[in-house]
Amino acid sequence: METISETVVAAHGPDDADGGESFATLLGYWARRLGDEVAVTYLDHRAGADGRAVTLSWRELDDRVGTLATRLADFAAPGERAAILARQSADYVVAFLGAIRAGLVAVPLFAPDLPGHAGRLAAVLADCAPRVVLTTAAEIDGVAGFLASAEIERPAVLAVDTPAPVAAGDRSWPRPEPNGLAYLQYTSGSTRTPAGVMLTHRNALTNARQACDCYGIETGTTSTVSWLPLFHDMGLILGIGAPMAAGAASVLMDPLAFLERPSRWLRALTASPGAISAAPNFAYAYSASRVTEAEKSYLELSRVVSLINGSEPVLPETIAKFHDTFAECGLRPEVHRSSYGLAEATVLVSVTEAGKAPRQVTFDRDRLAAGFALPAGPGAAQTTLVSCGFPAGQRIRIADPVTGALAGPGEVGEIQVSGPNVGVGYWGRPGASAGVFGLSPVDPDTGAGWLATGDLGVRYDGELFVTGRLKDLVIVDGRNHYPQDIEQTVETHPAVRPHSAAAFAIERADGEAAVVVLERAKGTEADVAVATAEVRRAVSAAHGLRLHDVVFLAPGQVPRTSSGKISRVLCRRSYVDGSLTARRPG
Questions:
Q1: Which GO terms describe its molecular function (predicted)?
Q2: In whole angstroms, how far apart are CA 26 and each of 20, 100, 102, 199, 212?
Q3: Which of 45, 47, 166, 577 could form a cystine bridge with 52, CB 3.0-4.6 A?
Q4: What confidence tens digit (pLDDT) does each residue in 357-395 have?
């Protein structure tokens, strides 16, 4: 068994941070070493319910990436942007690595037919001004049509899966500089126009290797399995970055294939001994509720190494439900790894220890809302939080978001991060970058400042507990309420569809007021007016909070992000502009 630290020495010496490396140079190393072993498998479920496996060996992937990089030299110069507008596929991997090998700044995006996100895509393209757009032959007409309708300078468009003549002879590509930009990772854009986090080769390689060490990704013995979109931070590092760092095989599938039938994800874990995968909290609850007994009979999950739960609050009941559902399939509780991260830090910041089930602590809810993490005593209102573990190779501090003063023991504050995985700013936004990246004091040894994450958390017995997001706090009559607490209370009502509620505050003349938007449970015959009154009473009793409004919507109507998570910010925006109330069910 070979660990990542051993492969680093074997591949490029012990001092890899300044070795002129990139994900593309590591691909070349593994192509020479692993040759015809499978590097990437894409499970294409569009061709049938069971999926058709499309595979590329390390050598095939390297050849295709090299061919694309050579073609790209005719269209763009090193440092210019190459945007990827394609569906999830092995071709997407070729496009991303080909752009990097050519010395371009990759911009991982999505096909223009992703429902509800055309405006975001147009805004991102206008922001990054790509010189070339990479897609596939099947999508090139749709991409060209979208670009023609967008108000941007027209880039060249290449289909990465279309053979093209390439001049014979030695190929040479720009030497990657550690501090040169590798790619732009665009944030969700739910609070503003999407911002492109500038990630260098050092940032990306550092975090990919941190992920390998933390999750146990090893050459030849493990593989990553992911349905997460490759244009999202975790999907990109888990599906491409970490496999390139460790020489591990990657198994990919489309997010829609998971949503249509979550058992497909679990079947892929079963078929991949030593599997490592990740998903948001909602996906674990969704899988537990949707996988049938007949489908469970095909699952063997005892060889899963790590199941990462991140990108939204980890709920204790979700962990319990998932493991209760799949324990009979061999799933071990200790493979569940709660994690915290964000795009500005490439992705991974902290994670729970391997070999242990994530720690859960029940805090006094009122004291937590007031900014202090204290265990709940008898009779106190309770909030149980799941630990996000320990730093994954960087430093974490908790600070007052206004004054910057360090929080005391047990005090809630803003989570701030420092380390070589933290990006260098937002593309074209020096003002916004200054308020987020490189906060004082700068470490005299590393020269690194601190990243303001905008997330609230506390260090308790050395472990990080994420309590919420600064911008999501519901503050009514001078009291803080965490929206996830309100949402959990609301979702106990049988008329409410599980994992569909969003709580947020709106501005009124007399101060902030609380609103809850939710979806009606499928098949329910409950009277909406009666259910609304009962939801109001439950929130008032549990939180001492009067709801200004409760909006029931039809299933699937609550606004979500491109990865399928409920977006409180989009809900607030749609509520304020009236588009949510226009969709109320009759």
A1: adenylyltransferase activity; ligase activity
A2: 11, 11, 14, 17, 14
A3: 47
A4: 999 999 998 898 889 999 999 988 888 999 999 999 999
Q: What is each CA distance from 502 to 98, 403, 413, 497, 529, in whole angstroms?
A: 40, 30, 23, 12, 19
Mind listing the pLDDT tens digit for each residue in 124-166?
999 999 999 999 999 999 999 999 998 888 999 999 998 776 6
521-529: long-range contacts (C-beta < 8 A, 24 or more apart)?
Answer: 521/494, 521/495, 521/496, 521/497, 521/555, 522/497, 522/555, 524/494, 524/495, 526/494, 526/495, 528/495, 528/552, 528/585
Q: How far apart are CA 530 and CA 495, in angstroms?
A: 10
Name the burial class of residue 170, with classes exposed (0-12), middle (13-18) and buried (19+) by CB atoms within 10 angstroms of its CB. Answer: exposed
Burial class (CB in 10 A: 0-12, 13-18, 19+), 494: exposed
Domains and CATH numbers, the chain: 4-9+16-260 (3.40.50.12780), 473-583 (3.30.300.30)
Three-class secondary structure of residue 474 per DSSP: strand
Strand-pair partners of 567:
none
Alpha carbon distance 549, 535 (integer Å)? 10
